[in-house]
Structures are given as structure tokens and as C-alpha cells.
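Appendix B. Chain record.
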Amino acid sequence: MMDARTKEKIAFNVLLALTLLVILPVALIVGVILWRGLPAITPEFLFAMPREGMRAGGIFPAIVGTFYLILGVAFFSIPLGVLAAIYLNEYSERNRLTRLIELAIINLAGVPSIVYGLFGLGLFVTFLGFGSSILAGALTLTIEGLPVIITATREALNTVPRSFREVSFSLGASRWQTVRHVVLPNAIPGIMTGAILELSRAAGETAPILFTVAAFYLPRLPQSVYDQAMVLPYHIYVLSTQVPNVSVKVQYGTVLVLVGMVFLLNVLAAWIRARLRKKKTW
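C-alpha cells predicted for this chain:
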């Protein structure tokens, strides 16, 4: 019969083995990307325009297009998602309608991204007449990301103790004053973390932008939100599947740039969370 300490050691070793089983493949993938992609990272590769059908030059338009797309998604999704979460969490009553809305949010979070791409093509590109553009792509990714931002925001709002609201109401504050001055400041770390992590996911999406914004070879920078743009995820897809005789170094270099952008967004989320949590007094 094993004693409690022996059982604890066995459980610890099993959990450690399972953790390594998850970490090692990720580390291997990142190592391969670094090994094959770093030789391609030069100033010309990062800041030059593409030439000869992407067989020469750099990927600067794809980097800029991805950055513009992330800015557009942030502009639309964060205000809409946060306001929707505030209404559902702080204002709406628990009834059949709100339960239906919550069920719809959960279901939308599980819809395949290709469906969002086709929806964006039908609504924004064709029906609203935005054409294949940054605006259409950003709105499509916004709809895809709203369920995640709403859910993350509601979780952050629920971490604020109910007693904070009760004290604010007892002092004569209105519901909006309570939300604005008590609830939101204490929920900001979780809200910002969820929003930035969703932006990093949107930066790596391919299917939604396939029909709404992406162009493979466009050796110029977009001039307005109604222009098409080169975008890194779609660029990687076409380089890997449809362009013959492209150097593997160029393929992995492009992947490394995208992974680097996503990594920086995640680091930013962690930094904001840590910085804002230090300001909490509870």
C-alpha cells in the first residue's frame, strides 16, 4: 500500500511528463522555424518591395497589410465586444432573450473560420460593396473575434467583487457611474489581455481574409481602407502551395516574421496584465 507522499510523487511525475509532451512539439516547431527562417531575415527582406512574382525583394507590403488589418480589427472589435459584455453582465435581466444571446455567442465561437470568410464575402464584399479591401477583411475578422472578446470581458467583469457594486450603489452612484468608475478600472487587466490575445489570433487567420482582403503579389502599400493588401498568413499559404521554385528560406523567413508578430502581441498582453494588476488595491 503506497503512502500519500509516494502517490503525490507519482502524480507529480505524470503531470510533468504530460506537460513536457505538450511543450516539446511546440519547442521543436519553433526551433525548426528559427533554424530555417533566420537566414532570410535581412533588412531587404523586411523592408523592400517584392519583385519578380515574389521570387526576389522583400515582404514589407505583407507586414504593413497585416498591421493595418490588426488595427482595423482592434478599432471595431474591442469597443463593440466590451460594450456588449457590459450590457449582458451589468444591465440585462436573466430571461429567455439573454439566454438565447449567450447561446448564440457560444455557438459563434465554434463556427469554422472559412464560414466567416464566406459570410464576409457575401455581406461586406458583395452586398455592401466594399470590395476586396482592408475594411471588408477587418469587419469579417471582427465578427469572428467578437464572441471571444465578449466572453473574456464578461469573465473579467465577474472577477470584480459584488460588494464593490453594492458599496457604490449605497453611496448614491448610478449604475453607469458604478460601471465606469468602479467595475471597469478593476476589470481592465482581464479585458485587455483577452482583447490582445484575440488580436494575435486574428493576425494568423487565413480563411476569412482569403475572400475579403488578401492579394498575393501587390508591390505597393495600400492607400486607403478600400484597397486590397498583402497579408502574411495568405502570403505564406500561397508561397507554400502555388509558387514553384521559391526558396525554403524565404518561406520559413515569412513564417518567422508572422510568428514574431504574434509573439510580440502575446508579450504585450502579459506586460499590460502585469502592470495593471500592480495597481489593484484588493
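Further analysis of this model is presented in Appendix C.
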